[in-house]
């Protein structure tokens, strides 16, 4: 559950609590369910901060990395992409 990030400014929530937003991009259980039942592997998760839910970042599968697109709010996942 990324407990090492608790209390910090980075993303530390990605659907591991009952109060987390639902959907395969924001909730780990929904993503795993879709992968197992429909064969659709997740291409990223949207993580947030438990103290500031408006702060979001994509979590990318290895070996991809998160990169800022160069425009848009620095606290919004939509301003970032998963790249090589």
Describe the secondary-structure layout:
Blueprint: H1 28-38, E1 45-48, E2 56-59, E3 65-68, E4 80-83
In short:
With 84 residues, the chain is an alpha+beta fold.
Whole-Å distance between the termini? 25 Å
DSSP helix count?
1
Structural class: alpha+beta
**What's the Cα radius of gyration?**
13 Å
The total count of strands amounts to 4
Give the uncertain stretches in residue-range form.
Answer: none
Largest beta-sheet details:
2 strands, antiparallel
Shape annotation: globular
Strand order of the largest sheet: 1-2
The average pLDDT score comes to 84
Helix content: 10-25%
Order of helices and strands: HEEEE
Per DSSP, what share of the residues sits in E-state strands of 2 or more residues? 15-25%
What does the model show?
The protein has 1 helix and 4 strands; from the N terminus they run αββββ. It has one helix at 28-38, and strands at residues 45-48, 56-59, 65-68, 80-83. A hairpin with a 7-residue loop joins β1 and β2.
Which characteristics define this entry?
13% helix, 84 residues, globular, two-stranded antiparallel sheet, 4 strands, two-stranded antiparallel ribbon, alpha+beta
């Amino acid at each position: 559950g990324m407990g090492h990030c608790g209390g910090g400014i980075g993303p530390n929530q990605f659907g591991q609590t009952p109060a987390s937003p639902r959907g395969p991009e924001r909730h780990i259980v929904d993503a795993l369910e879709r992968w197992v039942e429909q064969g659709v592997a997740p291409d990223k998760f949207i993580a947030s901060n438990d103290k500031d839910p408006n702060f979001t970042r994509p979590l990318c599968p290895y070996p991809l990395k998160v990169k800022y697109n160069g425009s848009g709010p620095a606290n919004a996942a939509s301003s970032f992409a998963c790249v090589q």
